[in-house]
User: Which sequence fits this backbone?
């Protein structure tokens, strides 16, 4: 029985900051951002597009009435949660008017959370083949103005429907995973911005990838002549490039060049959206599928997921017949093209805006007229959506 990603889509706010403008404002050579970390733009979210609204906007585009009725599990993976108790998935369930006959939970493990959700969804469908699962990765990456991580911010959500006989990617049963407690990245409950030890985080990322790749190779899971693409979690595209670079001396030249060329296609969306934490790997998958015209039915794809703190996993999937019919590249290209470019002042003003925390009422206007869902107000410490 094949189980995997039946549908996939993403949402990102309709405004961005060009990193050349940020570089000039911070008195940095733009190539440090464009080449040094490999990013071009970063999406910026208004207060009304929190992770619940973005998750609902991403999921809305792929859910048919039949899909909604078939759902038995809804998972929202995020490290930008809106409540310490109530799962973001319950807000999403309400906003999307989903059936009540399902499990709705939130998963947190830094950027790895969506992969945990995807694997949990796969196991659920294995036990309940007549059901489907909705997995949404939704995040707003914040590090602070003038901070070292400012250039690796972003905002967006990726939604996936998991089912039997998937139309896009059938997931293989075997995967290799690893967990260890590290202090490379964290965000305490009292902070709206993350803390990171950037260089150390890169070292942990690369070491865990190396360990997992070696273990997978010993189990003959990484036969590269059969591997048509290898995707990485990309908080910034240079990070994934560094991971792939570690394999250059281990692979045949033709195999390495094939993976490198496909990697370039996988980072196109991420370079314009920025870091979306849990959704970054899956935005890479969508970017690859919609920007590489040479992929064929049956092609095998590897996906390396990493979440600071730290958990990592390498898993695989195979492209399904007619997968291209279930993609909308022109829609996504237009979505990115039509966004408003912010000035630095506009970006900083948006960044400084905050939701009330004292129980008073704060009403919000809709920042994206094309998005069906948004946060309308905070009242008595509760969030209300439309």
Assistant:
């Amino acid at each position: 029985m094949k189980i995997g990603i039946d549908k996939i889509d993403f949402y990102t706010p309709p405004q961005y900051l060009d990193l050349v403008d940020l570089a000039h404002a911070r008195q940095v050579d733009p190539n440090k951002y464009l080449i040094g970390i490999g990013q071009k733009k970063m999406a910026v979210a208004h207060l009304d597009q929190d992770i619940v609204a973005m998750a609902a906007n991403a999921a809305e585009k792929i859910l048919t009435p039949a899909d909604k009725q078939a759902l038995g599990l809804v998972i929202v993976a995020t490290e930008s949660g809106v409540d310490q108790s109530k799962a973001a998935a319950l807000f999403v369930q309400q906003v999307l008017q989903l059936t009540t006959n399902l499990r709705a939970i939130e998963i947190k493990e830094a950027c790895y959370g969506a992969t945990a959700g995807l694997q949990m969804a796969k196991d659920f469908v294995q036990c309940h083949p007549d059901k489907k699962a909705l997995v949404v990765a939704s995040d707003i990456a914040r590090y602070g103005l003038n901070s070292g991580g400012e250039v690796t911010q972003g905002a967006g959500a990726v939604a996936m429907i998991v089912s039997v006989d998937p139309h896009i990617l059938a997931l293989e049963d075997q995967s290799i995973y690893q967990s260890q407690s590290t202090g490379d990245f964290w965000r305490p409950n009292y902070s709206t911005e993350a803390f990171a030890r950037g260089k150390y985080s890169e070292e942990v990322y690369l070491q865990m990838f190396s360990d997992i790749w070696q273990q997978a190779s010993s189990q003959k899971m990484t036969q590269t002549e059969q591997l048509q693409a290898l995707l990485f979690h990309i908080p910034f595209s240079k990070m994934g490039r560094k991971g792939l670079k570690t394999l250059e001396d281990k692979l045949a030249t033709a195999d390495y060049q094939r993976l490198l060329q496909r990697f370039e296609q996988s980072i196109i969306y991420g370079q314009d959206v920025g870091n979306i934490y849990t959704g970054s790997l899956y935005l890479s998958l969508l970017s690859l599928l919609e920007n590489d015209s040479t992929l064929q039915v049956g092609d095998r794809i590897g996906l390396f997921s990493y979440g600071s703190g730290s958990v990592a996993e390498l898993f695989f999937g195979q492209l399904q017949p007619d997968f291209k019919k279930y993609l909308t590249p022109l829609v996504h290209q237009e979505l990115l093209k039509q966004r408003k470019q912010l000035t630095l002042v506009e970006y900083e003003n948006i960044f400084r805006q905050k939701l009330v925390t004292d129980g008073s009422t704060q009403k919000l206007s809709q920042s994206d007229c094309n998005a069906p869902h948004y946060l309308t107000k905070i009242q008595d410490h509760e969030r209300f959506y439309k």
About this structure: The CA atoms of residues 304 and 314 lie 5 Å apart.
